[in-house]
């Protein structure tokens, strides 16, 4: 019965605790009367919120739906209009003024802005008055894992003292993630080390880098590069990651005393191991000196010579050193003047001596096998895992590091053998077959455990011993014939055997007839005791018509243990023979086989002959087709359909090899024997002087006839002349004309001295000329 006023307070709870689109409402109880005692009435507010979280980086094609505003006064008649104001209203967020639906128009990024505060109200569309008070709400952007962790620096540089104990802190690296740390594991970063083991480690939660090995020596290795990875999603699969590089330098501490130089045991003969220097107060030639070894506890191990430019004594090595056998050598060195003065020999000594101690420095050497090579034996029927033999190698250094063994797989590509890494036992991985491979040559590698870079190899030859696992068979395919008129106990074939095995005492084969046919056999087998056997007839005659072929089963066994045997078949064909036993009549297959050719060989020969015949026929057909090709031009009269196209392009002006330009400029330089391609060949070889038939008016004119014949001959012998079917036109004045020459070039008189009245006497043909030159015109001059 009491009236309460509800003060709406929309509060967004933690995103990881409240499902998307859910809101909580806190309700506070207020007094029902005001300060004057007037009862208060609660105004009805009817907002319906569907969604208040918005997913970032939305990739859909439509606008992303945010939520819906609705007033209890909205009856759906369009009289109410919804208005949205605040952050991004009208640009990022739009509202349907009729339905109140809110949409986001753009893809939002939570890292740019995490939430938006908006205000909404409902107004009357006609009066534009607010139906209810303005309400404020928040749209919070829901985070996704779209940012990888980033380190604050890249790269890092730091240093740590050498010989530091295990777990010494080197430095701390930090990576940040722009994703929401309050929602899920998108911003939860876990650190790991990608490069730098086993020297350093990193704490997965704090990023603190520590030393993982104690007593790291700067003199051995000074600089280290460590790669640290930071991965979000708590390091789970699918998380994003970033890396950084940390350069760590070991700083020096005083952990080494001063030492004299030592001679490494790996020094080669001839190398310098020490240099001595003696002083002489004299100068020049008087200061020259010689060094020599007077005594040594290593005979013939060292030698000494004098450097003439510096007068120093250079001690060189003559034999290899071995630290494990002798660690130091003591030498007595004497130095003397090279050019002593006899006058002062009795006053002062010319020599001096010094003791030199050479310390041999130990060098880490590879393991040494106890043999130069190994030869092992194994039976071919041994089971997989059988130990064939063992190899042994030791570290020659004083540290006596353990040795690890392995097989060089380049020498055992089929992985037939393996070696135990600890004790060097070589064992089988696959079964062996002596007939396939009687020897196996492999290499075993010995590696120093503390220094894997030091390795040694040794060859191991494994011989596969034979066991009697193969049965003997015929040495070849045997097939023979028997005559119809043969006699009993007549040998028709000698057979021998072969065996893939190789017994120590050699082969011994036994031949016999198969037991199941021995009672009714037509042939017998006689063992010759020399690994051969003879096949004998058992009857006096055989009939080819009754039976043309016999199959004789021969049992061959060896003399080894366990005994192996096999049954082999000999084919015997019955043929007709003469009195001397020569075959006369037999079936075709028997004849071919007797001649030494099998059916398969005969078929191969026939096929080869057919192929050769086919090749010959094809070659003949091709030659005939080439000869039957039609000429380019069939008829001289009709060449319209006989156009021959040559797709040849000239070389241009720079192509001086295609033709001789000098010949074109000087046609007379062409050789007389060179044939022309623009005239018929018969006009050149040999040249024939053609007779020209002149018109009747010129037949008696020898001058004209000689002129035409000369021009004809010139054209026939001119290589640059036009084609033979062309027309050449010439003009010839001739000589001996009654009218003489009409030219005025030879006249010595002037035009005014000429008299042309005689032209009228030459007849009607010169009448026109007489009219032109015979009379004078009215102006007093002649027409010319």
UniProtKB/TrEMBL annotation:
Stretch list, region Disordered: 251-271
SMART domains in UniProt: CA
A GO cellular-component term linked to this record: adherens junction
GO BP: any one term: adherens junction organization
Entries under SUPFAM superfamilies matching the protein: Cadherin-like (SSF49313)
MF GO annotations: beta-catenin binding; cadherin binding; calcium ion binding
UniProt key word Transmembrane helix: yes
Compartment(s) where it occurs, according to its Swiss-Prot or TrEMBL record: Cell membrane
Gene3D superfamilies reported for this sequence: Cadherins (2.60.40.60), TCF3-CBD (Catenin binding domain) (4.10.900.10)
Transmembrane segments: 601-622
InterPro entries xref list: Cadherin, Cadherin-like_dom, Cadherin-like_sf, Cadherin_CS, Cadherin_Y-type_LIR, Catenin-bd_sf
Record protein name field: Cadherin-10
Organism of origin: Oncorhynchus mykiss (Rainbow trout)
Name of the gene encoding the protein in the UniProt record: CDH6
């Amino acid at each position: 019965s009491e009236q309460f006023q509800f003060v709406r307070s929309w509060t967004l709870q933690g995103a990881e605790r409240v499902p998307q689109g859910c809101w909580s409402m806190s309700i506070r109880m207020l007094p029902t009367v005001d300060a004057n005692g007037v009862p208060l009435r609660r105004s009805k507010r009817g907002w319906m919120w569907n969604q208040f979280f918005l997913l970032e980086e939305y990739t859909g094609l439509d606008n992303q739906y945010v939520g819906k505003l609705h007033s209890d006064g909205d009856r759906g008649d369009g009289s109410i209009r919804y208005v949205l104001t605040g952050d991004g209203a009208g640009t990022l967020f739009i509202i349907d003024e009729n339905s109140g639906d809110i949409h986001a128009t753009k893809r939002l990024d939570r890292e740019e802005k995490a939430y938006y505060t908006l205000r909404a109200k409902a107004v009357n569309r006609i009066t534009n008055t607010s139906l209810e008070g303005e309400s404020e709400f928040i749209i919070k952007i829901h985070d996704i894992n779209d940012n990888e962790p980033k380190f604050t620096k890249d790269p890092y540089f730091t240093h740590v003292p050498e010989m530091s104990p295990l777990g010494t802190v080197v430095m701390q690296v930090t990576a940040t993630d722009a994703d929401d740390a309050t929602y899920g594991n998108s911003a939860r970063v876990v650190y790991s080390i990608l490069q730098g083991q086993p020297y350093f480690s990193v704490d997965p939660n704090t990023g603190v880098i520590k030393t993982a090995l104690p007593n790291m020596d700067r003199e051995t290795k000074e600089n280290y590069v460590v790669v640290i990875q930071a991965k979000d999603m708590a390091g789970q699969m699918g998380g994003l990651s970033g890396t950084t590089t940390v350069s760590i330098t070991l700083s020096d501490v005083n952990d080494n005393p001063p030492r004299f130089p030592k001679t490494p045991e790996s020094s080669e003969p001839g190398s310098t191991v020490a240099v001595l220097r003696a002083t002489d107060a004299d100068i020049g030639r008087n200061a020259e000196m010689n060094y020599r070894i007077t005594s040594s506890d290593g005979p013939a191990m060292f030698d000494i010579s004098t450097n003439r430019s510096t007068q120093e004594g250079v001690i060189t090595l003559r034999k290899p050193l071995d630290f494990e056998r002798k660690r130091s050598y003591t030498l007595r060195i004497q130095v003397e003047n090279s050019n002593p003065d006899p006058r002062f020999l009795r006053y002062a000594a010319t020599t001096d001596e010094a003791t030199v101690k050479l310390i041999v420095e130990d060098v880490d050497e590879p393991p040494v096998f106890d043999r130069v090579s190994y030869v092992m034996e194994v039976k071919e029927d041994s089971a997989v895992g059988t130990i064939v033999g063992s190899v042994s190698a030791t570290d020659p250094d004083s540290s006596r590091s353990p040795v690890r063994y392995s097989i060089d797989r380049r020498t055992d590509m089929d992985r037939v053998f393996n070696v135990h890494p600890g004790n060097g036992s070589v064992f089988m991985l696959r079964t062996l077959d002596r007939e396939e491979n009687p020897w196996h040559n492999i290499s075993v590698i010995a590696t120093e455990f503390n220094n894997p870079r030091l390795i040694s190899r040794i060859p191991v030859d494994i011989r596969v011993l034979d066991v009697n696992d193969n049965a003997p068979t015929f040495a070849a395919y045997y097939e023979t014939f028997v005559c119809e008129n043969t006699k009993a106990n007549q040998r028709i074939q000698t057979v021998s055997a072969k065996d893939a095995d190789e017994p120590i005492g050699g082969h011994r084969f036994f031949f016999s007839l198969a037991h199941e046919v021995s009672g009714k056999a037509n042939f017998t087998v006689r063992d010759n005791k020399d690994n051969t056997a003879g096949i004998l007839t058992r009857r006096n005659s055989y009939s080819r018509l009754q039976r043309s072929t016999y199959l004789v089963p021969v049992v061959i066994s060896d003399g080894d243990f366990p005994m192996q045997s096999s049954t082999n078949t000999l084919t015997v064909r019955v043929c007709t023979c003469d009195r001397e036993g020569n075959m006369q009549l037999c079936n075709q297959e028997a004849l071919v086989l007797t001649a030494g050719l099998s059916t398969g060989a005969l078929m191969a020969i026939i096929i080869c002959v057919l192929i050769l015949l086919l090749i010959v026929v094809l070659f003949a057909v091709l030659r005939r087709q080439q000869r039957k090709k039609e000429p380019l031009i069939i008829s001289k009269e009709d060449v319209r359909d006989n156009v021959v196209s040559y797709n040849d392009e000239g070389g241009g002006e720079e192509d001086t090899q295609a033709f001789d330009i000098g010949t074109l400029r000087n046609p007379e330089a062409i050789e007389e024997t060179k044939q022309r391609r623009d005239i018929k060949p018969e006009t050149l070889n040999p040249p024939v002087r053609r007779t020209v038939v002149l018109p009747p008016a010129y037949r008696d004119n020898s001058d004209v006839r000689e002129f035409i014949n000369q021009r004809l001959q010139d054209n026939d012998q001119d290589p640059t002349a036009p084609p033979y079917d062309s027309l050449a036109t010439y003009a010839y004045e001739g000589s001996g004309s009654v009218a003489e020459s009409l030219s005025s070039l030879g006249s010595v008189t002037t035009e005014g001295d000429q008299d042309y009245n005689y032209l009228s006497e030459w007849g009607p043909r010169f009448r026109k000329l007489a009219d032109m030159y015979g009379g004078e015109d009215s102006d007093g001059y002649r027409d010319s």
